[in-house]
């Protein structure tokens, strides 16, 4: 069974919902729709939420690298619950549609990156470590983040991990400054294989290609103020 490294951009609001409902996160990452309701309903509700004063305050705090207060988090949760109830009511009003929980609307924020089997080589290139993050932004880029969902969200190699928008910005900055050409030239596949790297045989061109994709992904996530989910499938 192959081990494939994947990353997905999510908004802070989607991340909060996934933490509350890991099952929805699992369905979303698997690409299985959980609702047949009109997507325009959720676009409208999402726009309402994103323009609320509490959300604007939290977005400003995120840009400053600050965490929201407990009171702000509770207020956001209350607003989200109200919007979910509204969505449920709209679904009931639509004839012939089965009731189900709201599903994130596909949007520019739902960008996903597949690193295929290069993820472990890149992590080794960034940190010199085989397992886990070294705590640096580069160490967080692929194997970092905090697990969410527990055993119920296990993708086969543990549950997904999440990086906050503030962490995403730090990773983007670190990747932008990383000397990939120099490090890729110096990469020793034989040494990586002896260290236990999964599919260590990646050449310089492959490493630079996947690094460029990773850097572009984080640049886009940081520019849009998104969080990032990371997992191995």
For this structure, the CATH topology of the largest domain is: Hypothetical protein yfbM fold
Radius of gyration: 19 Å
CATH architecture of the largest domain: 3-Layer(aba) Sandwich
Major sheet size, sense and barrel closure: 5 strands, antiparallel
Mean pLDDT across every amino acid position = 82
Number of strands: 5
How would you write the strand order of the largest sheet?
2-1-5-4-3
Strand content: 5-15%
Output the number of helix runs.
11
The name of the CATH superfamily of the largest domain reads YfbM-like super family
Q: Spans of 5+ residues with little confidence (pLDDT < 50)?
A: 32-39, 93-110
Indicate the structural class. Answer: alpha+beta
**Oligomer status:** single chain
Portion of residues within helices: 40-55%
| Alpha-carbon distance between the two ends | 9 Å
Q: Under the CATH scheme, which class of the largest domain?
A: Alpha Beta
Number of discrete domains = 2
Characterize the overall form.
elongated
* Element-by-element helix/strand order: EHHHHHEHHEEHHHHE
Name a few traits of the molecule:
Hypothetical protein yfbM fold; five-stranded antiparallel β-sheet; alpha+beta
What does this structure look like?
The chain is α+β, with helices and mostly antiparallel strands. The protein has two domains: 5-11 and 110-232, Hypothetical protein yfbM fold, CATH 3.40.1760; 13-93, no CATH class. 55% of the residues lie in helices and 9% in strands. The protein has eleven helices and five strands; from the N terminus they run βαααααβααββααααβ. The protein has helices spanning 12-20, 22-30, 39-50, 53-63, 70-93, 119-127, 137-143, 165-177, 180-186, 189-195, 204-223, and strands at residues 5-10, 112-116, 146-147, 161-163, 227-232. The protein has a five-stranded antiparallel sheet with strand order 2-1-5-4-3. It is elongated, with a radius of gyration of 19 Å. Mean pLDDT is 82; it is low at 32-39 and 93-110.
